[in-house]
Design brief:
single chain, 674 residues, alpha/beta, Ubiquitin-like (UB roll), Fumarate Reductase Iron-sulfur Protein, Chain B, domain 2, FAD/NAD(P)-binding domain, 5-stranded mixed sheet, 5-stranded parallel sheet, 22 helices, globular
């Protein structure tokens, strides 16, 4: 064969006369994106993604169908090429009706593949479920118990009846795998790089786990007697048994992570020493200081911060709260505090909140369980003065409130009713209204206007070289544990790149999302959410034993099977989302009516979702040119064109069942073996 010489992206390559640009580039190790090309079938040039620019040519060329010429100088990623690819992808995505990931996954701050592990649980494979979870977080049994599960808030099963009990299923699978003796994840060979992590809470443990798996030498420096952070010292035993947390931390240690407890930065070891003796430092110190209500009398005996109160219980030295306890706050910490006060023997426990119950940010189940255990609630009141006698708290003066206009977050702002007050007797007053960061020992790290560590939201770097920061101690302040874990996982990837001399910045992946109003749920059989078994209130209010009981296995499997499997089965292999993530920086510019097609299951063995189809023609061509069956064809014209099966007789169905080549070639997940 006659040889030709050309240059692609500055690389001299040799090809054979008659070969396409795409063929020569591929053999030379240069990728040119394409959605419609396969060596099994004739070139078609349908998608327009494979365009390239040839020096001296006024037009872009389709690499899959353009025969290479001797002396060509090709650029596969020029500015014109990228603009053209972006435009083609925007047109394709404007009519693409599919979910890359389920809303549960997208709403999870850690990005856990809820759909994936629910399927594994439904199939009885708990080990696989935990493996999937641990791709994003190393504490599934603990987080499954305490997470406020934003995944469930987004679960589309609610449009059928009720969301799936995703968090409880996470704990169910993790508990079973722990009990069976979980296999320790294997770490990569040692890199010789050292990382110090200040803080052994959920963020620090997560960053340490993923960095250790990458082969780095990781040491956590934890100021408290044991690791776990707020999971240990801020969440009561009745919600999270510390034996469960201990088991999961032990598994993290077995990956090679070293944890030094009782070591305070600035006292036992200096921040400068950490920096000097390590290749990178991660600050994950959390937010451990209770916020003050700002009303007079806070120096009285009997006044405590919410986190301080909870920590005193865990450390075995609960503060003296007396018989009448008032808790200020409406979040989950307030619920933990009031329910803990009941368990310590308080006779009257009252939560005061400046808005109504409807506006309370605490989980509804937490509020309901607190009421079952005897906690009282007083709404639309706000403490304005703590009244004492001889330095001891005696009562709380409450300003009566009413709801005014909505605030920036959409919640109606409480405003005082002038001159109207109430009083409530109290032996102790617990302020559970938030937490702030104590940065003592980390002098030199830049803080924002709120006194919180300022870290780049893309790469988690602080103002100091090689020093990163994640979790509650940074930027927006205290949040839920799963948010800190999500940040720490991303940061581990960034820090690993940094240690390898690569500059990275986290970018949210591009995904296609369906609108709920475009989905018909009427064909789904109703199957109510499983009830979580609990100890009765009159029993559980007297001790700190776990409130929730284990799910029955049959119930758990059935609950997992309620998953609607919203996310695409082919997400990991989908070329369309891969290229969209690469070239699209935002959602497509083009909005309009999408083609509306129901799923085609007429071939039984192969399911077709025409809403995901981009009309690349690969399925039609392989069925005709390779298989010789000609079962599929393009029907219609223009916007209404669709791929359909021309026959659905039993012999046709049997051919499809034995073949599956169309599914293999589909670049978008529009086809699925049934």
């Amino acid at each position: 064969m006659e040889k030709i010489n050309l240059i692609i992206n500055g690389v001299p390559l040799t090809g054979e006369k008659g070969e396409t640009i795409l063929q020569i580039a591929k053999r030379g190790g240069i990728e040119i994106p394409t959605l419609c090309q396969s060596e099994l079938v004739k070139n078609y040039g349908a998608c327009g993604i494979c365009v390239v620019e040839a020096k001296g040519s006024p037009k872009l060329m389709r690499a899959c169908s353009t025969v290479a010429q001797d002396g060509m100088d090709i650029d596969t990623e020029s500015e014109r090429v990228v603009r053209s690819r972006r435009l083609a992808l925007e047109f394709l995505m404007s009519d693409h009706d599919g979910d890359c990931r389920g809303p549960c996954n997208l709403n999870c701050p850690a990005g856990t593949d809820c759909q994936g592990y629910l399927k594994a649980i439904a199939e009885g494979d708990d080990a696989r479920a935990v493996q999937i979870i641990k791709e994003k977080l190393p504490l599934p049994a603990s987080i499954g118990r305490v997470c406020p599960h934003p995944c469930e808030t987004a679960c589309r099963r609610q449009y059928v009846e009720e969301p799936i009990s995703i968090a409880q299923l996470k704990a169910f699978a993790a508990d079973r795998v722990l009990a069976a003796g979980e296999k320790v994840a294997e770490s990569a060979p040692s890199t010789g790089k050292k990382v110090a992590i200040a803080g052994g809470g959920p963020a620090g443990l997560t960053a340490a786990y993923f960095l250790a798996l990458k082969g780095h030498d990781v040491t956590i420096y934890e100021g408290m007697p044991k690791a776990g952070g707020m999971l240990r010292y801020g969440i009561p035993e009745y919600r999270l048994p510390k034996a469960v947390l201990d088991s999961e931390i032990a598994l993290i240690e077995k990956t090679g992570v070293k944890i030094k407890c009782g070591v305070r930065i600035g006292e036992d070891v200096t921040f400068d020493e950490l920096r000097a003796n390590n290749d990178a430092v991660i600050i994950a110190i959390g937010a451990w200081t209770s916020m003050s209500a700002g009303c007079g009398g806070e120096d009285l005996k009997g006044v405590y911060g919410g986190i301080d109160f909870l920590r005193s219980i865990v450390t075995g030295n609960p503060v003296d709260i007396g018989e009448k306890v008032v808790i200020m706050g409406g979040g989950n910490t307030a619920m933990d505090a009031c329910r803990s006060a009941v368990r310590l023997g308080a006779k009257e426990v009252t939560v005061v909140y400046r808005r109504t119950e409807k506006e309370m940010p605490a989980e509804k189940i937490e509020i309901a369980e607190a009421k079952e255990e005897g906690v009282s609630f007083r709404f639309l009141v706000n403490p304005c003065e703590l009244v004492g006698e001889n330095g001891v708290l005696k009562s709380v003066k409450l300003q009566v409130m009413e709801l005014g206009e909505p605030d920036a977050g959409g919640r109606r702002s409480p405003v005082p009713v002038e001159g109207k007050f109430e009083y409530i007797e109290a032996d102790s007053f617990i302020q559970a209204i938030g937490q702030k960061v104590n940065v003592k020992g980390f002098e030199g790290v830049e803080l924002n206007r709120r006194g919180i560590i300022a870290a780049d939201e893309g790469n988690f770097l602080t103002n100091l070289e090689g020093v990163f920061a994640v979790g509650d101690a940074t930027n927006k302040g205290a949040s839920i544990a799963i948010a800190a874990i999500g940040e720490a996982n991303k940061a581990a990837t960034i820090v690993d790149a940094y240690l390898n001399g690569i500059e990275l910045s986290y970018r949210k992946p591009y995904v296609s999302e369906r609108k709920v109003e475009d989905i018909d749920f009427s064909d789904r059989e109703k199957a109510p959410r499983c009830a979580i078994p609990q100890r009765p209130a009159e029993e559980r209010r007297n001790d700190f034993k776990e409130v929730n009981l284990p799910l029955d296995e049959a119930v758990a499997r059935a609950e997992a099977k309620r998953c609607l499997e919203c996310g695409c089965h082919d997400y990991g292999e989908c070329k369309l989302v891969d290229y969209s993530d690469r070239y699209l920086t935002d959602k497509p510019r083009f909005e309009g009516d999408k083609r509306s097609f129901s799923k085609d299951l007429s071939l039984k063995a192969v399911g077709r979702n025409n809403g995901k189809c981009i009309l690349c023609g690969l399925c039609v061509r392989v069925c005709d040119e390779v298989v010789g069956a000609g079962i599929l064809g393009l029907v219609g014209r223009g916007f209404t064109t669709v791929v359909k099966s021309e026959f659905n007789k039993e012999e046709t169905i049997s051919i499809c069942a034995a073949c599956g080549k169309c599914v293999e070639l589909c670049p978008t997940g529009a086809l699925k073996l049934m």
